[in-house]
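for ur thesis appendix - non-specific protein-tyrosine kinase. copy paste whatever u need, i formatted it the way the template wanted (i think)
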Amino acid sequence: MRRQKHDDRYQKLIAHWDPLSPLVEGYRTLKLNIAFSTQDQMLQTILVTSPGASEGKTVTAANLSLMMAKDRRKTVLVDFDLRNPRIHFTFEMPNLYGVSSYMSGMCPFSDIVQDSGVPDLFIVTAGPIPHSPAELLGTPRLSELLEQLRNHFDVVVMDSPPLIVSDAMVLAREADGCVLVVDAGKTRRDPAVRAVEQLKTAGANLLGVVLNNKKLGKREGYYGYGYVE
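the 3d part is after this line
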């Protein structure tokens, strides 16, 4: 079924529905910059986060996952935002079982992995929202889950909560690399700088900053994504 350009899912998954769109070039650049910045090390788990809410981290994580899968690398996108999960809405998937289900011992790993319908791309949704996401992510089950993901997939893209909650810092320390997403029209300088400092203080490997909703110029007339070291 062809998606229309005004369709919300079309806009959020543009790397799949319209791979030749100029907007997709930003995601392609992000993928290449991640590869170039980590030539000397093995980078398998990539966390995508933001200083605050609604700055584009989930859309960035989803399209980055699509770009990774296009390289025929077995990729999984995992929704670790247990407070405000969005991945199951973005991909229109059930959310009966997911990260929280595995973390709480309700189901085995095999029950939480879903086929996205896109070649080489799989999805793990957040699952039911737990009473205390921070406590759940602070258990040894997190390391067990990440080990399972590493064993089964070439690339693990983690959609994290924003850095205003403690969950994000726990996840950032576990990831091989982190990408920070900021909104050009919304994110103020101080929170952005503070977010970078938070990640560095936590010992996270900050790969770079994605500038979301950046106006590309009058001629193009659209918004896109820029990558800032």
